[in-house]
Every structure is written in C-alpha cells, then in structure tokens.
Write a structure and sequence with these properties.
about 325 residues; alpha+beta; outer membrane lipoprotein receptor (LolB), chain A; 2 domains; 11-stranded antiparallel beta sheet; 7-stranded antiparallel beta sheet; 3 helices; about 40% strand; MucB/RseB_C_sf; MucB_RseB
Length: about 325
C-alpha cells in the first residue's frame, strides 16, 4: 500500500512538474510574440514619423551616395516641406563633376545639366535624393515586409535608431535606415543584400534645419524652367506583351509613352512601394541581346523580342530582374485587343 501511495505521489509530482514546465514554455512563447509585436509597432511608428518628416520639414543636408566598389558622390539637398505634396519645393545639387541641378517646383521636376539638354517631367519628388522606401505608409507594407529594431547609435554627430526593412520573400534587397532621434529624418540608408553586404549607401554628413528658407524659396520661384517632356498615358508598343510573373506585392503603377528627342519609348512602371522597376519598349533593336549591367543597387537588362528592344531597369537583384525578363510573353491576339 505504501508502495502504491509513493508511486501515485511520484506520478503526481511528475505531472505537476510537466504542467509547470509547459506553463513556462507557453508563457515564454506568448511573451516573445508580444515583445516582437511591440518592437514591430515601435519600428512602424518610427518609420511613419520618418516619412512625415521627410515630406513636411524644412531642412538642408549634405550627403554622399556610394555604390559597392565605387567612389562616393556628394550632394546638397534643400527642402521646403508641406502637408500637400504639390506644395513641396526642393533642390538637389551635384557637388562633384558637371554642375548638375535638379529642382522640384509646382509638382514638376526640372533637370539642368551642362552636358545635355535640360528638361522637365511631371513628378512630386526628386527621385535622385531619397529612395522610394522613405515615402510610404509602412502599415500597408506589413504583409510583405518585416520591420526590425536594431538598436541605437550615432551618425553625423546625432543620436539615431536603426530599423531594418526586410522582405518576407528574398527576391529583393533589404534596407537598414538610421532615423534621427529628434527630427526623425533618415541620416543613413543602407541597401543590403542577403549576406548583409552594403550594395548602396546614402549617408548624411551634416544637417541644417535653420537654413535661409525664404531666400531659397525666392530662388525657386524666379528660375526659368525647361519645357515639359511629352508624356502620353498610352502604351501601344506594350499592348502585345504581358508579364507572366511579378514579385509578390508588385503592381503596375503607370503606363505611358515618352517622346524623348525623336525617340518613342513605351514604359510601364511596377512597384511594391519600396522597390520598383520599369519595362521599356522601343522599335530600335539593340545590336546585342540579353545584356545585363549591374550599377550598385540598379540592374539593367536588355533583350530583343520580336522586332522590338525591351529594357528592364530596377533596384532589384540580378536574378529577380532576369526572371522578370524571362516571363515577358506575347499576348494572344484576343487578349491584346
């Protein structure tokens, strides 16, 4: 009888130990999940504050941009913020090489360049300044990206928090963004590959939030601007083709024809909000087909299909751009009508 009592007591203790262990395991899982959710929310909050600051703040920054294994190029960027995008004014100056200048004014971006004709295009921002990733409602990207806090450090003599924007599908790059603790401007943006090697880096060297905004606005208002490029929202050359595969989250944003100095180019723009690529079709075939060029984070792939030349340009890895190119297929006569 004593033996049976001891056995029952032993089994009871074992059961209690198992229940306690199971409780702690479940608690750890729930706590870990809760902590991850809290960190994700904090990262999203920082990113959304950054997106607002980039658009609405007045500031002047000097920054460098550098592709992997290339020399850095330095810039000055002046920005007059506004709640509405059409009211934003900005200027990008190239501080090395030819004296290039890009101005955003009245929802139009104008390119002044000494080595080629100046021109203007309809655009709400200067794409050569900050990359697409900073202009987002990041909550809408949660289904295709993870947002990870990486801690705090310093850059440009300012305190910053690091956030990684990591694609759930590894067919694109990731970003590590260094966000100012006070004004929430991005002070460094690293484009990284799957090995966490930096493919391209934008790094702010100094920031001046008290620059002469009135003087800058007067300069912008009194410039003479070049003619607006003819852009038609048609895509006749692209009507006969379609993409049989797109990376998850990508969708067609725009389709138009551009007449650029007697050359007709039909273009379709695709984006997931963070990365983008264009499919460009012209009637002039390239002398060599299936050419691939890598320029830092930008990949260019050229191929001839039928009697047309198709060029894909995007800030995506080579393998992804090549897969997109391999999935350009001719529409049947019925679907292309």
């Amino acid at each position: 009888m004593n033996f049976l009592f001891s056995l029952i007591n032993y089994k009871s203790k074992q059961s209690n130990n198992f229940i306690i262990t199971l409780f702690f395991i479940l608690f750890s899982i729930l706590f870990s999940t809760s902590a991850i959710a809290a960190e994700t929310n904090e990262a999203l909050n920082l990113l959304n504050k950054m997106g607002k600051a980039v658009q609405t703040s007045d500031y002047q920054i000097h920054f460098l941009s550098q592709d992997r294994d290339q020399f850095a190029t330095t810039f000055e960027y002046n920005h007059l913020g506004a709640a509405k995008k059409e009211n934003i004014n900005a200027q990008l100056l190239y501080l090395e090489g030819p004296a290039k200048e890009i101005i955003l004014h009245n929802n139009t971006t104008s390119y002044f360049q000494p080595d080629s004709p100046s021109f203007s295009i309809a655009s709400s921002r200067i794409t050569e300044a900050f990359p697409d990733v900073v202009y987002n409602d990041f909550n809408s990207l949660a289904s295709i990206y993870d947002f990870i806090l990486l801690g705090k450090t310093r850059t440009a003599n300012r305190s910053v928090q690091l956030v990684k924007v990591l694609a759930k599908d590894r067919d694109r790059y990731s970003y590590v963004i260094w966000i100012d603790d006070e004004n929430f401007l991005p002070l460094r943006i690293d484009l990284v590959d799957d090995d966490n090697d930096i493919v391209n880096q934008l790094k702010v060297l100094d920031i001046d939030a008290s620059f002469d905004a009135k003087k800058f606005k007067n300069y912008i208002d009194n410039r003479t601007y070049p003619i607006l490029l003819s852009i038609e929202k048609q895509n006749n050359l692209l009507d006969a083709w379609r993409l049989a595969w797109l990376p998850k989250g990508f969708k067609e944003i725009a389709a138009y024809n551009v007449n650029f100095y007697s050359s007709d180019i039909a273009t379709k723009l695709f984006s997931d909000g963070v990365f983008s690529f264009t499919v460009n079709v012209s009637l002039e075939q390239a002398s060599q087909s299936n050419q691939l060029i890598q320029q830092g984070g930008r990949t260019i792939f050229s191929t001839n299909l039928g009697n047309k030349n198709i060029i894909i340009i995007g800030n995506l890895p080579e393998a992804t751009i090549e897969r997109i190119a391999q999935n350009i297929v001719e529409k049947s006569p019925e679907t292309s009508r």
